[in-house]
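Worked example 3 (structure in, sequence out).
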C-alpha cells in the first residue's frame, strides 16, 4: 500500500479540524470554548510553520497536532525548516501541499533524504492537484490545498477555522506580516492569487454537507 493510500485510510470516517494562522483565531469571547471545540475533533491539522505552538497562541487554539500540511520550502518565509527530531513523537503525518513534480520535487526530495521514513509523509495526488491549479489558474495556498485534499478523502466531518485568505495577515506568533505585506510578497512572486482560490473554495464547499467553518471564513464565502 502506498503512503498516499495509507494516508487516505488514516482519514477515513474521521472528524477533522483545520486550524490556520489568521488573526481571527484570537477574536473569540471564550478561549477555552474555542480550544475545547478544536480538540473535540479526531484529527487536528495545522499549516506550515505551526509547531511548536507558542503559549501565547495555544491558549486560543490548543497544541495538539496530528497532521501538518507544509509547502516543503525550507525558506523561513514559506514552509520553514521541518524539525524531524522534534516532530517525530508529536504528529502522525506531514503532507506536502504541492505534488512531487518540478519545481516542488527538489524540496520534497531533500526532506525525504532527511526524514528517511521517520515521520509518515505523502503528497497530493498529481492528477487532482493539476486539475485544481488548472481551474484556478494559480498556485493554491497551503490552507486551500489542505481543505481540498482532505475533502477528497472519505472523512466524516471538516471544521475550518483561522483561514481568511490573508485578510488581516497573520497572527504575529506565526509570521509578522500584515495583509498588505503578505499580498505584495505573493504578487512579487506571481503565485497564490487569492480571488480565484476563494471562488473555487466557494464552489467546492457549497453543497458539501461535511463542512462547517468559523464565522470569519463563512463571511468571505458568503460575499
Amino acid at each position: 500500500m502506498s503512503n498516499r493510500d495509507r494516508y487516505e485510510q488514516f482519514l477515513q470516517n474521521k472528524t477533522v479540524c483545520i486550524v490556520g494562522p489568521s488573526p481571527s483565531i484570537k477574536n473569540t469571547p471564550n478561549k477555552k470554548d474555542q480550544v475545547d471545540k478544536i480538540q473535540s475533533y479526531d484529527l487536528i491539522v495545522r499549516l506550515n510553520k505551526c509547531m511548536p505552538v507558542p503559549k501565547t497562541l495555544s491558549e486560543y487554539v490548543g497544541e495538539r497536532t496530528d497532521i501538518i500540511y507544509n509547502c516543503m520550502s525550507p525558506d523561513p518565509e514559506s514552509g520553514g525548516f521541518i524539525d524531524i527530531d522534534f516532530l517525530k513523537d508529536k504528529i502522525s503525518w506531514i503532507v506536502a501541499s504541492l505534488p512531487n513534480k518540478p519545481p516542488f520535487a527538489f524540496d520534497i526530495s531533500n526532506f525525504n533524504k532527511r526524514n528517511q521514513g521517520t515521520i509518515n509523509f505523502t503528497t497530493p495526488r498529481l492528477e487532482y492537484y493539476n486539475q485544481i491549479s488548472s481551474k484556478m489558474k494559480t498556485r493554491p495556498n497551503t490552507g486551500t490545498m489542505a481543505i481540498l485534499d482532505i475533502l477528497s478523502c472519505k472523512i466524516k466531518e471538516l471544521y475550518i477555522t483561522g483561514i481568511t485568505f490573508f485578510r488581516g495577515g497573520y497572527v504575529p506568533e506565526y509570521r509578522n506580516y500584515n495583509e498588505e505585506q503578505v499580498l505584495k510578497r505573493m504578487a512579487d512572486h506571481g503565485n497564490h492569487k487569492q480571488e480565484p482560490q476563494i471562488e473555487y473554495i466557494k464552489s467546492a464547499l457549497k453543497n458539501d454537507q461535511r463542512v462547517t467553518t468559523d464565522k470569519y471564513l463563512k463571511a468571505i464565502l458568503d460575499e
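Notes: The chain has a mean pLDDT of 93. The CA atoms of residues 25 and 162 lie 5 Å apart.
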